[in-house]
Amino acid sequence: MPHLQYTAPGGRATRHPIVRALTSIGSSSECHLVLPGPEILPTHCTLIHEPGRFMLESAQRAAVFFVRGKKTRSHELRHGDVIAIGGVELVFSAVDELASPDAGRPAAAAPQSHDAIDAMKRLVDFSELLLRPGDLEHLLSELIDQVVALTRASKGFLVLADDSGNYQIRVARNLERQPVDDPAELLSDNILREVITSRQAQIISDAYSDTRFQSSLSVINLKLCSVMCVPLIVRGELLGVIYVGNDNVRDLFRAEQLETLKVFAAQAALFIKNVGLLVELREESAELAERLEQFKFGEIIGSCPQMIEVYNRVEKVAGTDITVLITGETGTGKELIAREVHNRSPRAKGPFITVNCGAIPENLIESELFGHLKGSFTGAIANQVGKFQAADKGTIFLDEVGELPLQLQVKLLRVLQERQIQRVGDAKTTPIDVRVVAATNRDLADEVRQGRFREDLFFRLNVIGVELPPLRERGDDVLLIARYHVKRYAKEYARDIDAAKAFAPSAVHAMMKFGWPGNIRQLENHIKKALVLAEGTQITAKDLDLELDLSGSPGAPTGEDETMPLAEAREVWQREYINKILARNNGNRTKTARDLGVDPRTIFRHLEKEGKDGA
Q: How far is CA 156 from CA 56, 268, 332, in A?
C-alpha cells in the first residue's frame, strides 16, 4: 500500500497509509497527517491520489516544501522521494513490500470507520455550537468549515435559494478556513440549478467530462472535477444548497460522504429556518410596536376614523378649562380619554382625581365629593377633605355621573356655577380651582326626559361632548388592541406567544365578528383567558371562548351554531367580508377591488346581487 514514512516525536518511525483521494498535511488537528513544527502551516499541502499518479500540492503560496533538496510548491511523487516539510522529512513509498495479500482488507476498512467516527464527532460539535448564543454568520461559516474538513474538498459554499431558481451565495470557505475571494466565479451555475430544480443531492465525479454539463461555460472554464451538492429542505420548503468541490481530483467523493453531508444539511436547514423565523418574528414585533406607537394616543390605541375624530376633539378641548362630558358604552375607555384631556392640559402637573359616582353609597356621596367636619354625622371622627378639594389645581373625573341622586345633582350644579364647595357640617364655603370631566354610559338626554337627571346640570356638564364608539364599530382596531393586550400580558402569564403572530385565522375571524357588548374591557378579559388556556404558540377562537352566529347576526354569541353546507358558509363569509372592505373604503369599488386583489367587475357583480337580495 502507498504510504508516507517519517520520524514522529520521540524518535518512533511512523507510516501513514495513503488511502484517500486527497490527503491533507499540516500542523492542524483537522489534517489527515498531522506534523509538528513552527514552520509548518495549519494546512501546508495536499497529496492528491489519482489512478497511477500522486501529486503533492501546496495549500497556499507561502507553503513550500523540498523534494530531494529542491524547493517547490508542486511535485509528482516517485517511489523513494524524500520530502522535507518544515523540519520533518517524509519518505514516499508507492508500494508496501511487507504487506501480505490480505493486509489491504482491514487497512482499507479502517479509514472508512475513522471517517464515520470523525463525521459523527463533527456533527455533535456543530450541534453543541448551535445551542450556544452566537453570531449567525459565524455559525454558518463554522458549518461550511466542518463540511469542507469532513469531505476534504478544496472549497465549500452555503447558497440560499428558492424554487424559482434564484440564489445567493451566503458563505464561501476554503480548506484553510478562510473566506473565498470572488465565490461566484468558483462554482457552477448549471450544477446549482440542476440540484435546485431536482431537489436531489448529487455527486458529480468528473464534471468536466459529464455529458450533462458539456455545454456549461462555468464547468468548462473552471475545469471542474469532483462536486457534491445537497439541497437544504425543511417541510417541503427549499432554503438553499450546500456545495463542495475540488478542481484537481476526480472521484473524490463517495456515497458515504454524501449521506453524511445530507445529515449536516438537514441540521443546517432546520437552523437556518429557525433563525429566519426568529428574524421574521423580531421584524414583525418591531413593526407591530412601531404601528402601536403610531396608532396610540397616550394610552389609547386605535386608528379608525371615529377614534381619529375623538383624538382631534380632545386635542382642541384639552388646552381649555371647559367642562367635558364623555359618553359611550361600558368598557369603551372613557377614563383613558379623561386622563388624556388632563395630561394634555395646562393642569397636567396637578392632581387627577377619579370618582365613581355609581360605586359610592348614596348617604356617603356628599361627604365623599365635598368632605366633612369632625362630628358632623355619626362616624365622622375626623375632618375629611373631599374629592373636589383634593383635585384643586387639577382635574376631577366624575365617572358614571348619571348615577348621582337628584339631591346631589343640585349641589353639584351649584359647585359648577360658583366654583366653591361646602363641606358637610361646615357653615362656610371654600373656593376651588378644578376642571370637571364627567362620563356616563347612559343617554342623559333621555334621562332628562324621564325626569331622572336635571336638565340644567346636563347642559352645564355637556359644554363639550366626546362620544366614544363601541368596539364593534371600530373595524381593525379590534385586532390592534388584541395584539397590544397579548404583548402586555404574555410576559405576566409566562407565555411565549409573539404578539405579531398571536392569533390563528379562526381567532381573527371570531374577534372581527363578535359584538363585544363589554367593549375593550371584555376583549381584555378574553385575551387574558386565552393566554392561560392556549396550548400552542397561537390563540384560537376556542381559546378566546367565542362562538359566532354564521346566519348573519353581527357578532352575536349563540348557544349552538347553525349548521350549513360549507359552500354556503363560504359564500356568507365572502359576502360579509366584501361588504366590510367596501364600508372601510367608503363605497369606493375600485379601491376595494384593488385591496382584495380581484377584478373590479367582481365588486360590481357583488353589489348587483346585494341589490337584488335587498329588493
A: 21, 14, 60
So where are the chain's domains?
A: 3-99, 107-278, 300-469, 476-607
CATH, domain range 3-99: 2.60.200.20
What is the spatial distance between Cα 391 and Cα 370, in angstroms, rounded to a whole number?
11
- CATH annotation of 107-278: 3.30.450.40
Long-range contact pairs involving 62-69 (C-beta distance under 8 Å, separation at least 24): none
Selection from 540, 543, 518, 523 nearest residue 478 by Cα = 523
CA geometry: angle 558, 563, 566, nearest 5 deg: 125
CB within 8 A of 66, min separation 6: which ones? Answer: 72, 83, 84, 85
Rounded to whole angstroms, the Cα distance separating 405 from 559 reads 39
Query: What DSSP assignment string belongs to 19-74?
Result: -SSEEEEESSTTSSEE---TTS-TT-EEEEEETTEEEEEESSTT--EEETTEEESE
Rounded to an integer, the average pLDDT of 220-249 is 78
Handedness of CA 205, 208, 209, 214 (dihedral sign): positive
pLDDT over threshold 70, residue 192: yes
Which 8-state DSSP code applies to residue 503? B
Q: Are the C-beta atoms of 317 and 325 separated by less than 8 Å? A: no
The rounded distance, in Å, linking the Cα atoms of 98 and 17 is 13
Interval 276-303: pLDDT, tens: 655 555 555 555 555 555 556 778 888 8
Give me the phi and psi of 29, to 5 degrees please: -70, -10
- Per-residue confidence band for 218, with pLDDT thresholds at 50, 70 and 90: low
**Mean pLDDT rounded to a whole number for the chain:** 80
CB 550 within 8 A of CB 561: yes
Report pTM: 0.47
Among 62, 23, 570, CA closest to 248: 23
Q: What is the pLDDT of residues 506-541, one digit of tens each?
A: 888 889 888 888 899 899 999 998 998 888 888 888
Find cell 514516499 and name the residue.
92
Interval 203-212: pLDDT, tens: 877 665 666 6
Regarding beta strands 430-431 and 296-297, do their DSSP bridges make them parallel or antiparallel, or are they unpaired? Answer: unpaired
Backbone angles phi, psi at 18, to 5 degrees: -95, 100
Q: How far apart are CA 216 and CA 196, in angstroms?
A: 16
- Annotation: CATH topology of 300-469: Rossmann fold (3.40.50)
- Tell me the three state secondary structure of residue 603: helix
Express as a percent the part of the chain with pLDDT over 70.
79
The CATH-assigned architecture of domain 476-607 is Orthogonal Bundle (1.10)
Give the residue carrying C-alpha cell 358614571: 400
Q: In angstroms, what is the C-alpha Rg of the chain?
A: 40
